[in-house]
Amino acid sequence: MIISFDIGGSAIKGGIARSETDIVPLGRHPTPKDDFAAFVGALRGIIAETGEQPSRIALSIAGVVDPDTQRLTCANIPCIHDRTLAADLEAELGLPVLIANDADCFAMAEAGLGAGRGHRIVFGAILGTGVGGGLVADGRLVNEAGGFAGEWGHGPIIASAAGNPPVAIPAYTCGCGQKGCVDTVGGARGLERLHKTLHDLDLSSEEIIGAWRHGEEKATRTIDVYVDLVASPLALTVNITGATIVPVGGGLSNVEPLLAELDHAVRARILRKFDRPLVVSSECSIEPGLIGAALLGLKAEAAAS
Hints:
By secondary structure, the chain is an alpha/beta fold. The chain contains nine helices and 14 strands. It is an enzyme of class 2 (transferase).
């Protein structure tokens, strides 16, 4: 038995995994952001609640492990930022610890138990508050040792003009320090930013999408520009990776007409032609961070035994 954790800025969610088909979620606990001892205590408490001793733990975190130094970058939880977190937790808990990025865990979950089942190469895309991604090939996470593979949301690659007819798009400053990243336009905040740029209107992403679905002219223009901007880098990602399915998670993935528009635009821009949907909604019903971390932990346990 292993325990997987999905660790976010506000809550820690746990789960018990005995096999790929036996993953049971546990409860939620507040995330101690500024006190490492309290953070360890929260994990220890969840482990104790199970009444069993796991063989290892696996964590899904909104951060990236440097594959060279094993240090974690996790800005939204200061007490674990810049730590060699796996080694630190192993010392505290006396258990083997595996850590993976949350988008990577999403991709792993969808490849193993979701929309990517049966596909050799799965690219999991996140369209949430921002943009993220993860890559799984032949059942293995490319980022097993940490790193940035799958981060299609970053890099100065968005078009300087988009839509029909084309309109100029600023190179917005990204939180990563660069300008013109897909992350600045592809998530919910990016959609709102585009609407403000195009129409000088401050609306939430939900309001923009609602107006678009009712045929409102300005919202329709914003979605047209959004799809044009996001489809090209996603199509490039598909060409480079050879992915044959792109499950999408995050809040915008729940807008099926938007995914259909994006799927149509991506399939029109890639070299390989598909007569079926390529960009699809995720399917995992349990929290994908828990599932992905559990699958990674189970694989590590099998390899160690």
